[in-house]
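All the exercises in this workshop are built on plain-text protein records. Instead of coordinates, the fold is spelled out as a row of discrete tokens. Once this layout is familiar, the rest of the handout is easier to follow. The record below serves as our worked example for the rest of this section.
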Amino acid sequence: MPKMKTKSSAKKRFKVTANGHVKVAQAGKRHGMIKRTAKFIRNARGTTVLSDQDAKIVKGFLPYGR
């Protein structure tokens, strides 16, 4: 069997943790911060973990990231 290909866009955006969760940067912080509330900006700091449904899709893009 040949090696499976990893999606290049996925390997740049996602990391799989030791427990198998998919870690991703918070969305919605690229531009337009003036209209966002301070609470939104504060809560969107750092990274977050994807839901199980979304993580299943992303793990298909990262065959060796498990």
User: Anything to note?
Assistant: The longest helix spans residues 52-61.
